[in-house]
Amino acid sequence: MQVKSQTGSINWQAGNATVQTSPGSGSAQEGQTDTISFTLAVGAGTMNDCDKPLQITMPISWSGDNKGTKGSGSLGVTITYMKPCPKPM
Fold first, then answer.
1. What's the DSSP call for residue 86?
2. How far apart are CA 37 and CA 62, in angstroms?
3. Which has the closest alpha carbon to 81: 42, 53, 46, 45?
4. How many CA atoms within 13 Å lie on the side-chain side of 25?
5. Among 42, 30, 32, 47, which Cα is nearest to 2's?
6. Secondary structure class of 9 (helix, strand, coil)
7. Distances 33 to 9, 22, 49, 80 between C-alpha atoms, Å
8. Peptide bond preceding 23: is omega within 30 degrees of 0, i.e. cis?
C-alpha cells in the first residue's frame, strides 16, 4: 500500500496488533510516496470461518501542513482475506 503527499507534508501512522505494518509510521514531503507493507496476525481458521472471505480494517492516521494550513484525520483500509481450513488428523 502507498501513502502519497500531493501538496505539503504529512506524518502518518498505520497498523495495530492484528495488522502489523512496516514501517509503522513515517513522513512524506510534497510529492513523495511512502510504501507500507503489512502482515496479518490472525489465528488459525476453524471449520466455521475456513475458506470464507473475512475482513479486517487497517487503521491509518495522519497529520499534515500545506503551506501553513494544517489538517489531520484517520481512515480505515478494509483487507479481505481467507483462512485455510484446519487439516484433519
1. P
2. 17
3. 53
4. 7
5. 32
6. strand
7. 11, 14, 36, 24
8. yes
DSSP result, 57-76? EEEEEEEEEETTEEEEEEEE
- The pLDDT assigned to 76 comes to 95
Residues in the chain: 89
Q: Are 1 and 77 in contact (CB under 8 A)?
A: yes
Q: What is the pLDDT of residue 45?
A: 66
Amino acid code (one letter) for 6: Q
pLDDT by residue (tens digit) across 44-55? 767 788 888 999
Map grid coordinates 480494517 to a residue: 57
The contacts found for 9-12 with CB under 8 angstroms, 24 or more apart, are 9/64, 9/65, 10/62, 10/63, 10/64, 11/62, 11/63, 11/64, 12/60, 12/61, 12/62
